[in-house]
Amino acid sequence: MSQAMDTLRAAQEHAMAIRPKVGGFPCLAEALRRAGVSRNTWILPACQSLYLTEAGPVVMQGTPLLTGAADVPAFDPQALIAALRTDQAGESTFPEFLAASWRAGVVRYDVDLIERTVTYFGCNEETYTERYPAVDIP
Hints:
alpha+beta; 4 helices; globular
């Protein structure tokens, strides 16, 4: 395992250990930022995640949301916002959030850990960007 992978895994484990049920994403983002991650890009529905770290890039392959061919849902910012608010309230799991984002037409999203923004993209480059708050973590 590389230094980049070790550092990333340790930051994720730390974040999961201290993450609150409500508002957990800013805690995870801050743990990643402190570990030297500057950007995280998720590709849906493949659930592939690319982390750009000071020690080098790391890709993680999660469980895809679907297999085979599928129509891409139309980008629906209101459905995306509903999925975000449900997740932010601690009322969905991460896999449920990813599935709801896909149903809202999100094909990828980009987390800028320096600027504290997340930009969600539809297949025709439609976007929705949201800022997340800075948090202090132990």
